[in-house]
Structure formats: C-alpha cells, structure tokens
C-alpha cells in the first residue's frame, strides 16, 4: 500500500517537473516549438473537458469547437468593448459558455449517441454563422484583436510566461475534475454512462446530471477559448469548425477514453503532429490521418494503455471507459 | 525536397536585425546555429517519414564570403541565396487556392534557372495552413525560425490578420498578400504590401462601368458571406447610390452550401436587371446554372476571383455573356507564355489557371523589389525600394504596379471583360479604369 | 414559388438521401458511422473520371469500373483496417474512419490536384416544367435512382438470407456466429456494397457540385444529419430524412434568411429530435440494465 503511494508520488513529481521544465526545454528549438507547446496545453484543457463528457459520462459532442469560439468571443468582447480585466473575463467566459452548455445539454437529456452528435454538431455550424451575422458586435471576418493579459504591470508577453498561465488553468481544471469524479455527482455521471436505467432506479437524477456535465465540460472549454484568444491575439468566425470538433474527439480516443493522462497525451500528440505537418505541403493531411489510423490500430485503448498503472493489480470498473456512441451493443467476447 | 522545413544554411554573414521581442529574450547567433541542427534532429525524430529531414541538416560550409565586402544583409539573405516563405491552403477546404503558392514556386524556379537575382538563388519555403488562423501563426513562427527575408503571397484575410503581427514584430516584410481585402492595406502598415486589387476597387469599377455603358437601373448582389463578399457588396451599394441605381436584392451564401437553386430563386423574385456575383468559382457557377434553369437571364457581373476561363467549363452556357473585371492579362496571351511554360515544367499535372498566374505575379513583384536592392539586401532598403516602384509594367499584369509609402495597394486599375460563349474566351471590353477615376470609399 | 422551393429542396435533398443510404447500411450491420464514406465515394468517382477523360473510355464502362473499384476498395478498407478493431470501443472505430478520411482526401489532392473538374452527367440536364416549377431531368433521375436503391436494399434486408444474416449480426454477433454466420464475410460484404453505393452517389452528385477532392464534404455532413433524422437504422428513414433536410434548407433559405440557413435547419433538427429522440423512423431501443 505504501509502496504504491510512493510510486504515485514519485510519478506525480516527475510529471510536475517535466511540466515546469517543458517551456525551457523547447525554447532553444525556436518559437514555433514554444507555440506548439502552448497550443498543446490549451488543447489539453479542451481534451480533458471533452473526456469528462464523453469518456467519463458517455455523451458525445461535436459542439466543442463552438464552445471554444464562444469562450473566445466572450473574453475578447469583455476586455475590448467593456475594458474589463482579463482576470475577470477569463472566469466569466467559463460561466457564459457553461450556461450555454447547459442549454445545449438540454436536448442531451433525451438524446444519445449519433443523435446527440448531430444535435451538437448543429451548434458548431451555428456559432460561426451567428458571429458573421452579428458583425456589429463581432466585427465579422475582420475579427477582434484581444491583448495579452498582464499581472500588475508585467505583461504575459512571452510564450514561456503565457505557458504558466495555461498550465495553471489546466492544473486547476484537473484538480476540480478529479475531485468531481470522486464526489457523488461524479459517480452519478459514470453511473449514467454505464447504464441510464440502473442509475435512474438507484435514485440518480439522469436529466439534470446529463445537462450538468455538459455545462461543466463547456465551461472548461470556454476557458480554453479565452486563453486561445488572448494568446493568438486574433479572433474570427472561422477559427474553429466542425472539423476541429472531430479533431478533439480524435485527441481523447488516441490518448485514451475516461483518462485524464490520456486526454493530455492525445492532445499533445495530435496537436503537435497537426502543427508540424504543415511543412509537408500537400502531404500534410495524409500524415495527420496516418498517425490517427496507426495510433488507433496499435493502441485501441489509447496511448495511455502503454503505461502500467500503479493500481494495475487492483482493477477498478470505472477506469475502463466505455463511451456509448451508438446503441447498446452486447459486448461480444468472441475473439 | 523543397517543402521540408529544415534549413541549415550558414548564418555567418547575416547581420541579424531580428530580435525576438516577446518577453525580450535575444536569440544569440551562436545559439541559433546550434538550434537549427537541434530543430532538424527533433523534426526528424518527431515526424513520420521525416528521414529526409536528416539529409538536409548537414551544414554546408559557406563559399567565399569575403569577395563582397560592401554588401550588407538582413536575415535570410546572403551572397548566394535569398530565403522567402509562404503559407497557404495546400490542403483542406479551399486547397484550390494552393495554386497561388505553386505559381510563386514556378516563378522562382524560372528565376533560379535564368541566373537568379544578382546571382543569388531564391529559396522558397512553402507551408500548408489549411486556411486556419492558428496554423498560419505556427507557420509564421516557423518561417521566422527558418530565417526568411520576407513572406510572399500569404493567403487569406483571417490567416494574415492572425499571423502577420508575429512577422511584423520580427521585422519581416509581408509582401504580395494574396487577398483583395482592404483590411490588410488600409491603413498602411509599412512592412506589409498588397498586390491584388481590393474588392472595394473592383466593386466600384464594375458598378460604375455597368451603369455608364449598359445603363442598368436595378442591381441584385449574390455574395459570399464573409469579408470578401461583404466588402464587394458595400462598394457596389455605395457606387450604385451615387447614380441612384437601386440594389434590389442581397443574397448571401455560405462557403459550405450545396444548394444554390434557392439563391437563384431569391434573385429571380427580386428580378434585378443586373446580377453582381461576388463569390468563388464553384458556388458562382452553381448559382449561374440555377438562374438559367429557372429561365432568368439577367446581365451578370462576376468578380475577378471567378473571372477565370475555368468558368466556361463549370457553368457552361450560363456563363456566356457574363461580364467580369481583371488585372491580369488573358491566359492565352503572348505575355503569359513564359508563365505557362514554366508552370507546366514545375507542375506537369496541374492546369495553369489565373490563380497560379496571380501567384507567379506575386513572386515577380517581390523579385523586382529584391533586384532593386542590389547588394544591400536589408529589410530597410527593401522597403525603401518597394515604395519606389512606380507604374511598373515588368510583371505579367495588365495593370501597372505602384507603391508609395502612403499606398500599398499595388494594383490600382482594372479592365472589363466579357465571356464569349462561341470562342470560349474572355474578351476585353474596356481600357484600364483607375482607382482615382471611380473615386473610392477607401482612404 | 412555394412549390418551386419545395421541388428544389427535394432535388438537393435526394443528394443527401443518396449519400445517406450507404452510411446507414454500414451502421445497420456494424454500428459504425463511417466518416470516410464521402471520401471513398470521391475516390471512386475520380476513378471513373480518370477513365473517362484521361483514357477515353465510354461512360458506362467508366461507371462500371468505378463500381468494381468501390466494391474492392470497401472490402479492402474493412479487412485491412476495421476488422482489426472488432473488439475495440465504437468510438475508436469511428476515429479510425476519421483518420482514413484525411488520408483519402490527401491522396486525392496529390493525385488529381484541387482544381475543380466538370464531370459528365448520365442523362440530360435540360429542364422540365412540373406545374409552375422547374426541375431538370437529371434531378428527377437522381430522385428515382435514390428511391429505387432504397427499395432494393430495403427488400434485401427484409427478404433475403444475406439480409437476415446482416440483421442477425447487428443484433447479436455471438448468436449470429453460433448460427454459422461468418462475421468477416458479412462485414466485408457490407463495406463493399456500401462503398459501391457511395460510388453511385459520387457519380451522380459530381456533375452538379463539380469534381474535386472536397466535393463530397458538405454532402457527407448533411447525409449524416439526414440519416440521424431518419433514425439511422432505417433506409426509408434516411431517404425521408434527406428529403426533409433538403426542403427545410430550401424553404428557410427562401422565406426567412440565407445567411442563417444552417442555424435554422439545425435548430429544427434538434427540435425534431427532442420530440422523437430515436429519429423519424427509428425504433426505441430496449436498454438492458
């Protein structure tokens, strides 16, 4: 028991050190690498949020690109038009996106699988259209130019300084979600994933919890949107499209469903490949596609299955994520 | 391996003007050199099929750099080579526009084969951004790390808006931006140069001409629902208002639409005498076919973006008689013979379109600016020389190229053409119509 | 004008319906949404295009070759990729098809470039008046082909032995195997046939939307929505879903707004799904505890 705990602590320490050292390790590799690192951590936030919804709670979303954009716009408009501080705009973008997520999650109360995917996909189409339509507010395709935030008089201008802001958000998010999953609500989410009817019959309010997890996932994605906007310093209606929603799903599947380390691994791998592929010209999407195909074929349970977890000897049901994307399939145990 | 990003040329006689201003760290030259090798290593390890990257990382010792003592260089330029970079949609939803980067590449191949610019070869780094702003930013950073002298023909408004700040802060000129959006040229950014006519200019030119020559009384506008379509729409409305001509229908389409018959129906309901079409080729063609099928045959005025002979194939009969405006010569003219030959040589399987020609011209203008720099290939001198280009007809354009410190439009004149269905050719219908002649809503 | 908007909507809706049939076929047997379907259709169409315009074969031969290619291609994709993931999460299988989507798309761009081509149509594109509205013979032809294909496959599912085996596999793989049904054969056949269906869709749609590596993108997304609207496991449902979607787009675009078209359409889809969470023709699953 204690050795397991020590192992856990040691691993946490290594991960923490790696996370703290990362920006300085990649810094001499040029600014593109620093950029890819920062963007990877922003997408880690999205992936962890999406995995809470899909991996842990069994609901698919193709609307997360839209949540990112809502976060972007809320934060940009608050800081640019109302001159509010970024430090207020950041949590507020989470709140607004979270409320919106709750509304989008309402149909989810009755939908699942592909039906839910299409319903949420509509949202990914609607947000860019609305951003173009309300060009008085959003400045249409000419876009908005939010600024880098400042701590007192110190502007987080460098990639390295901004990295620690994103990292802090990711760490807070992970702590919140880890505790959430251990709580009554979190167990309710997972119970709903495993069987809605069983959950209902044991007193879980299915509808409310389904909308709630949508809201939480959207809220964190809104934070990622805000961080993106103030990092790139440019926001326009086509920043994130349905294709990106698919890419986020690819991140959590490649990394590992129902796993926080998996989400992080997946986000880093997919984003890095995606950004680095640009130098392959016409072959860039072939490369990204091939990596996705190989990853899924070689590690059907995600890259996270590579490591041996400290609790490997003590199998827990909840660590085996199963997203019910489609109809309930009888799990065939035929080889 | 033109498009492998890893470069390892020697940086000894660079006078590094580039400072990384973010956070104020100064990248030391020595560090930079070792970093190039490191980046190469990392790339090779990270990228699948990147074994070729290793091959290009061997640093080649620089040949005699003492011969030209009076020459001075900014990043990316040396006695033997000038490095340029471009980022565009080589894949993704609007990959057809990758032709622009291909046109640029074809021109630089031609330059290199014919002796280079003052014996310096051009190296063009082509990166794919899939028309996504976040990838364009990554590419801008990659290009800066690769030490480009200037960016050329980067495509798109949003992509440029997102990525240019980084290039500009690094003191890298952004030239021949491949978009007609005036958001990039008004107000003038000293380091950024447009080239294509703005959608505002073309809106004014086409509308004025249609009113003066064809005496149209009512206008309907079919436009793409973004900066491109809306800028054209606004210019048309303004010019029409000047002559009390009514805009009776405004029909917006989205780039992902599949059904254009509804839009044709909307237009037919308003029944304008002339329909202006501010869209990219495929949707415009489908819209034209839709109107024809409904038996509605208004005068058509098509943006230069779709004023391409390819429309004869896509829209067929529906394109016959349509007017369009242009800033490039006809594709089959003598003036474009070199372009056609070299484009075919570089890309044997791709048809030489107007898009590719516009990329070719983008490259010509930059090459002209570089040639004017002589042996003083510094950013400051380059900007100075670019700003002195006046009524230059050396590029394969039909309109002269002009830059001044207060005007970075590049092209400020267009001419009208009409589609002749019998010969399947576009036929010139007017001489050059200049920006100052139509008056404008810009400046 | 209303009749015209409806007829135009039906015409474009039948494109969605046509592409949705293949999607539903795969889903019905294997529970996988094949997001590469549109790209596989695109590649098959390019095969016909290559034979037709570059090598000068007659239309019928090129179309036939395209179908044969699609059958082999679909089977190949199943055997090489999907069959290896039989026991993995459904979501993993879907992401696999997404990866294939990118690969196929990229390959087409490398082989044929991204400049749009015109594809010859199988029948005349002249217009015909139906009441006060106009439609082309070609659009009518597509509608008829769509309905025929739907009926043929509906009948096959219902009345043939293969259809029975497909239904059995989709309901219970283990039991189906015990009954002597070969999973590989059934799945392989399904992938082959639905890819061929995709090829038919591609061949019919390309003359309208022009042939380029991205020409099936928008249609594929709409086909997915159409299939879901119809219940995703019902062929008549998919066709009806496609037609409803087409008409909604057309009517919204004409009477309400063109620049918020997809927003309205998807709002309506969400509305319909809220009332009927299993889609128009779907049957409610009995979930086991």
TrEMBL record, chain A:
One of its GO terms (molecular function) is branched-chain amino acid transmembrane transporter activity. Residues 325-335 have a biased composition (Basic and acidic residues). It is found in: Cell membrane. Residues 311-335 are annotated as: Disordered. The chain crosses the membrane at residues 12-29, 35-53, 84-106, 161-181, 211-234, 246-268, 280-299. One of its GO terms (cellular component) is plasma membrane. It holds the Pfam family BPD_transp_2. Its main location: membrane. Keywords: Cell membrane, Membrane, Transmembrane, Transmembrane helix. It is a multi-pass membrane protein. PANTHER family: HIGH-AFFINITY BRANCHED-CHAIN AMINO ACID TRANSPORT PROTEIN BRAE, HIGH-AFFINITY BRANCHED-CHAIN AMINO ACID TRANSPORT SYSTEM PERMEASE. This is Branched-chain amino acid ABC transporter permease.
Automatic annotation (TrEMBL), chain B:
Residues 82-421 form the Leucine-binding protein domain. It comes from the Bacteria. GO terms for biological process: amino acid transport. The keyword Nuclease does not apply. The keyword Transport applies. Keywords: Amino-acid transport, Signal, Transport. Belongs to the leucine-binding protein family. This is Leucine-binding protein domain-containing protein. The lineage of its organism: Bacteria, Bacillati, Bacillota, Bacilli, Bacillales.
Automatic annotation (TrEMBL), chain C:
One of its GO terms (cellular component) is plasma membrane. Keywords: Amino-acid transport, Cell membrane, Membrane, Transmembrane, Transmembrane helix, Transport. It is a multi-pass membrane protein. The keyword Methyltransferase does not apply. CDD domains: TM_PBP1_LivH_like. GO terms for molecular function: transmembrane transporter activity. GO terms for biological process: amino acid transport. It is found in: Cell membrane. The chain crosses the membrane at residues 6-27, 34-53, 59-82, 94-115, 135-157, 186-211, 223-245, 252-275. It comes from the Bacteria. Its main location: membrane. Belongs to the binding-protein-dependent transport system permease family. LivHM subfamily. PANTHER family: ABC TRANSPORTER PERMEASE PROTEIN, BRANCHED-CHAIN AMINO ACID TRANSPORT SYSTEM PERMEASE PROTEIN LIVH. This is Branched-chain amino acid ABC transporter permease. The lineage of its organism: Bacteria, Bacillati, Bacillota, Bacilli, Bacillales.
């Amino acid at each position: 028991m204690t050795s397991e705990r020590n192992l856990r602590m040691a691993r946490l320490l290594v991960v923490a050190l790696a996370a703290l050292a990362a920006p300085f390790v990649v810094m001499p590799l040029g600014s593109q690498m620093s950029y890819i690192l920062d963007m990877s951590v922003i997408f880690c936030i999205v992936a962890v949020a999406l995995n809470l919804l899909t991996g842990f709670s069994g609901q698919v979303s193709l609307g997360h690109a839209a949540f990112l954009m809502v976060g972007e716009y809320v934060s940009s408009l608050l800081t640019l038009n109302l001159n509010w501080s970024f430090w207020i705009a950041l949590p507020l973008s989470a709140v607004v996106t979270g409320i919106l997520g709750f509304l989008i999650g309402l149909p989810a109360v009755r939908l699942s699988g592909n039906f839910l995917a299409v319903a949420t996909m509509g949202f990914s189409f609607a947000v860019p259209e609305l951003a173009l339509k309300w060009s008085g507010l959003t400045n249409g395709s000419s876009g908005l130019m939010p600024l880098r935030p400042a701590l007192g008089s110190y502007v987080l201008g460098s990639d390295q300084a901004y990295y620690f802001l994103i990292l802090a958000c990711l760490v807070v998010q992970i702590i919140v979600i880890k505790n959430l999953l251990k709580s009554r609500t979190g167990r309710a989410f997972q119970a709903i994933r495993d069987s809605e009817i069983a959950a209902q019959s044991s007193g879980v309010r299915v509808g409310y919890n389904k909308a709630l997890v949508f809201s939480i996932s959207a809220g964190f994605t809104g934070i990622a949107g805000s961080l993106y906007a103030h990092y790139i310093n440019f926001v326009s209606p086509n920043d994130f499209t349905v294709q990106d929603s698919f890419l986020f799903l690819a991140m959590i599947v490649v990394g590992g469903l129902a796993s926080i380390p998996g989400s992080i691994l997946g986000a880093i791998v997919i984003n890095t490949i995606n950004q680095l592929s640009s130098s392959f010209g016409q072959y860039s999407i072939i490369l990204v596609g091939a990596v996705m195909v190989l990853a899924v074929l070689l590690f059907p349970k995600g890259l996270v299955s590579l490591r041996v977890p400290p609790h490997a000897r003590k199998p827990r049901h909840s660590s085996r994520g199963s997203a019910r994307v489609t109809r309930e399939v009888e799990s065939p145990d035929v080889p | 391996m033109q498009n492998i990003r890893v470069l390892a040329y020697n940086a000894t006689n660079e006078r590094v003007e580039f400072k990384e201003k973010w956070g104020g760290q100064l990248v030391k030259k020595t560090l930079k050199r070792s970093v190039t090798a490191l980046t190469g290593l990392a790339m090779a390890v990270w990228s699948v099929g990147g074994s070729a990257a290793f091959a290009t990382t061997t640093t080649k010792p620089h040949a005699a750099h003492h011969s030209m003592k009076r020459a001075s260089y900014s990043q990316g330029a040396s006695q033997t080579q000038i490095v340029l970079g471009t980022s565009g949609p080589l894949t993704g939803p609007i990959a057809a526009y990758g032709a622009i980067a291909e046109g640029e590449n074809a021109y630089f191949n031609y330059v290199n084969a014919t002796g280079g610019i003052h014996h310096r070869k051009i190296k063009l780094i082509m990166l794919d951004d899939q028309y996504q702003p976040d990838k364009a930013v990554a590419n801008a950073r990659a290009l800066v790390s690769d030490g480009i002298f200037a960016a050329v023909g980067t495509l798109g408004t949003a992509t440029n808006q997102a990525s240019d700040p980084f290039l500009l802060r690094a003191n890298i000129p952004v030239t021949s931006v491949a978009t007609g959006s005036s958001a990039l040229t008004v107000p003038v950014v000293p380091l950024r140069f447009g080239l294509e006519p703005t959608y505002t200019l073309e809106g004014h030119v086409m509308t004025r001409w249609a009113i003066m020559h064809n005496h149209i009384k009512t206008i309907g506008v079919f436009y793409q629902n973004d900066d491109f379509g809306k800028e054209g729409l606004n210019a048309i409305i303004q010019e029409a208002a000047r002559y009390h001509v009514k805009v009776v229908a405004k029909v917006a389409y989205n780039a992902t639409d599949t059904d254009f018959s509804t839009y044709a129906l909307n237009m037919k309901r308003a029944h304008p005498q002339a329909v202006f079409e501010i869209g990219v080729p495929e949707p415009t063609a489908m819209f034209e076919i839709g109107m024809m099928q409904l038996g509605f045959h208004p005068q058509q005025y098509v943006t230069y973006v779709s004023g391409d002979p390819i429309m004869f194939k896509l829209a067929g009969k529906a394109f016959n008689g349509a007017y369009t405006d242009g800033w490039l010569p006809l594709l089959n003219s003598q003036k474009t013979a070199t372009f056609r030959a070299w484009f075919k040589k570089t890309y044997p399987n791709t048809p030489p379109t107007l898009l590719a020609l516009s990329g070719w011209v983008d490259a010509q203008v930059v090459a002209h600016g570089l040639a004017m720099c002589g042996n003083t290939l510094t950013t400051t001198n380059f900007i100075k020389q670019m700003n002195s280009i006046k009524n230059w007809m050396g590029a394969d354009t039909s309109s002269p190229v002009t830059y001044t410190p207060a005007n970075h439009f590049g092209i400020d004149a267009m001419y009208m053409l009409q589609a002749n269905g019998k010969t399947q050719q576009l036929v010139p219908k007017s001489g050059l119509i200049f920006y100052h002649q139509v008056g404008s809503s810009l400046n | 004008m209303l009749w015209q908007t409806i007829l135009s909507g039906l015409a474009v809706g039948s494109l969605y319906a046509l592409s949705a049939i293949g999607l539903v076929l795969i889903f019905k047997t294997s529970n996988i949404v094949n997001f590469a379907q549109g790209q596989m259709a695109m590649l098959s169409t390019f095969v016909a295009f290559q034979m037709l315009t570059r090598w000068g074969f007659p239309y019928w031969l090129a179309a036939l070759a395209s179908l044969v290619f699609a059958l082999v291609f679909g089977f190949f994709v199943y055997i090489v990729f999907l069959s290896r993931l039989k026991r993995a999460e459904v979501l993993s299988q879907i992401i696999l098809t997404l990866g294939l989507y990118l690969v196929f798309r990229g390959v087409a761009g490398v082989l044929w470039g991204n400049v749009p081509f015109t594809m010859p149509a199988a029948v005349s594109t002249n217009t015909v008046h139906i009441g006060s509205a106009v439609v082309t013979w070609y659009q009518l032809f597509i509608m008829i082909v769509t309905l025929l294909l739907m009926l043929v496959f509906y009948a096959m599912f219902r009345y043939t032995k293969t259809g029975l085996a497909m239904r059995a596999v989709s309901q219970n793989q283990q039991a189906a195997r015990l009954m002597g049904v070969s999973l590989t054969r059934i799945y392989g056949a399904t992938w082959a046939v639905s890819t061929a269906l995709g090829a038919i869709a591609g061949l019919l749609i390309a003359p309208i939307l022009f042939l380029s590596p991205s020409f099936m993108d928008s249609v594929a997304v709409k086909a997915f929505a159409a299939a879901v609207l119809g219940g995703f496991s019902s062929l008549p449902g998919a066709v009806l879903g496609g037609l409803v979607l087409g008409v909604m787009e057309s009517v919204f675009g004409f009477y309400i707004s063109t620049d918020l078209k997809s927003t309205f359409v998807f709002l309506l889809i969400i509305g319909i799904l809220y009332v009927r969470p299993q889609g128009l023709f779907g049957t409610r699953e009995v979930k086991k505890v």
